[in-house]
From TrEMBL:
The lineage of its organism: Eukaryota, Metazoa, Chordata, Craniata, Vertebrata. The keyword Transport does not apply. Keywords: Signal. PANTHER family: BPI FOLD-CONTAINING FAMILY B MEMBER 1 (PTHR47395:SF1). It comes from Pipistrellus nathusii (Nathusius' pipistrelle). Pfam families: LBP_BPI_CETP, LBP_BPI_CETP_C. Residues 1-21 form the signal peptide. It comes from the Eukaryota. Gene3D superfamilies: Bactericidal permeability-increasing protein, domain 1 (3.15.10.10), Bactericidal permeability-increasing protein, domain 2 (3.15.20.10). This is Lipid-binding serum glycoprotein N-terminal domain-containing protein.
Length: 472
């Protein structure tokens, strides 16, 4: 019985732990309503939506659709139509789109206002009779399971938004004819919008959705490979679209070297606060990207030829340990620096550091194979990130160490702190310039430009990078 109670207690604790666990995706792209509005408006232009509106067959539509849905006597309809020589759209405009959340905040409602002017010619008046029509198509965007992310669930024009009026006063004789034409257009125009424009809206949305997916999946080039993102899931909350992304790192041959698709460390996602979009990338993904730019390497320097002043300082420091060893140093003395593991990126609010495990060896000449000593150095540098144009730039400033280990010594045992100052200066003069040269090209941020912005800003949180556009 006691064993059963213990088992039940353990199961309860495990369940509580799982419920309370925070599982975060590797990256999150938040899209505000401005992005959806601008992208869809551009795709409507690409699909020549205005031409579709200008070619709406008004005359044939009113022949087929009785006013108000109430059948009229055929002779009466014909008498109206017999007085019309032609009827067509003379001016069409799509006003600024409006994006707002649905009543349950789980969908986006896109209102597409239409401003149309139709003209008809009749022998009753010498000039063209112009009718002003205002209406709007309404499209609903919802989340779709799977890799598509978003879907257009409906596109309608109910007629409730339709307003029709004459642009100019006309003669007393033509007024009844104009009123009859407007009554015939009340049911005909919404039907035309549904049958002619909605398919264009649906095609424009599909193009927008595909473009957003391509933008998400566009590889981010690295020096020896690239970083790829992929859509894991989508969500709509209020008027914000949230795309949760997986990530993977590939080498120069295209082989995946690391997956990040599994939920992992915490990820704090700041609110948009009016920004058009934000791209939040988890710390471990950025860490892997930096590591790919700074792979393990070995540097060997003929110190006396490259940095003669430091060669003298090093000799003086070794002389404090062993005069015999210092006397064996020649002009061909070599300092070897090895970074045996990739660096680790450490984030804090507004700042970042790069920690590295470094091995340093000193050889008295270029012919000696065994070093005087080998030091293990736990070093860190200030990591300065900034955005320049369409690239994320990183520069390492200064270098310091809390611990230096004497790994082995061929001269005698000594406290490695004796060499701390010269060792840090050697790393600053040899290792940092080499690493900064590899970082000089930066990381391209094609997403910012693809979303229609030329400048962006970077914010560092305790667990992520947050990129937002700079708006005028």
């Amino acid at each position: 019985m006691a064993g059963s109670r213990t088992f039940t207690l353990l199961c309860g604790l495990l369940a509580a732990t799982l419920v309370g666990a925070t599982l975060s995706p590797p990256a999150v792209l938040l899209l505000g309503p401005e992005i959806i509005k601008d992208k869809l408006a551009q795709k409507l232009r690409d699909h020549d939506a205005l031409r579709i509106l200008q070619e709406l067959p008004l005359l044939s539509a009113i022949r087929d659709e009785p006013a108000g849905g109430i059948p009229l006597i055929g002779s009466l309809v014909n008498s109206v139509l017999n007085h019309i020589i032609w009827l067509k759209i003379t001016s069409a405009n799509i006003q600024e789109l409006q994006v707002q959340p649905s009543s349950d905040s789980q969908e986006l409602i896109v209102n597409i206002p239409l401003d149309l002017v139709a003209g008809f010619n009749t022998p009753l008046v010498k000039s063209i009779v112009e009718i002003h029509m205002e209406t709007e198509a309404q499209a609903t965007i919802r989340v779709e399971n799977g890799k598509k992310g978003l879907a257009l669930s409906s596109c309608t024009n109910s007629g409730r938004s339709l307003r029709i009026s004459l642009l100019k006063k006309i003669s007393f004789m033509a007024n009844p004819l104009a009123n009859s034409v407007m009554k015939l257009l009340v049911p005909a125009l919404p039907k035309l919008v549904n049958t002619k424009l909605c398919p264009v809206i649906e095609a424009a949305f599909e193009d927008m959705r595909e473009e957003l997916l391509r933008l998400v999946k566009a590889p981010v080039a690295m020096s020896s490979g690239h970083l790829e993102f992929d859509l894991l899931s989508s969500a709509i909350k209020d008027n914000i679209v949230r795309l949760s992304l997986g990530a993977k790192l590939r080498d120069s041959q295209g082989k995946v070297t690391r997956w990040f698709n599994e939920p992992g460390a915490s990820l704090t996602i700041p609110a948009l606060d009016g920004a058009p979009f934000s791209f939040t990338v988890r710390q471990d993904v950025v860490d892997a990207a930096v590591a790919s730019l700074l792979p393990p390497e070995e540097l060997m320097v003929l110190l006396d030829y490259v940095l003669p002043e430091m060669a003298l300082r090093l000799k003086d420091s070794i002389n404090r340990i062993s005069e015999k060893a210092a006397g064996q140093l020649r002009h061909t003395q070599i300092v070897k620096i090895l970074t045996q593991e990739p660096p680790e990126l450490l984030l804090d609010e507004g700042s970042a550091k790069v920690a590295q495990m470094i091995v340093l060896e000193v050889f008295p000449t270029n012919e000696v194979r065994r070093p005087f000593f080998t030091l293990g150095i736990e070093a860190n540098s200030e990591a300065q990130f900034h955005i320049k144009g369409d690239r994320l730039m990183l520069n390492l400033n200064e270098i310091s160490s809390d611990r230096i280990h004497l790994m082995n010594s061929d001269i005698q045992l000594f406290d490695p702190e004796i060499l701390k100052d010269i060792v840090m200066d050697l790393l600053a003069a040899i290792l940092l310039p080499n690493e900064n040269a590899k970082l000089r090209s930066g990381i391209p941020l094609s997403m910012v430009k693809a979303l229609g912005f030329t400048e962006s800003s970077l914010t560092l949180t305790k667990d992520a990078f947050v990129i937002t556009p700079v708006t005028p």
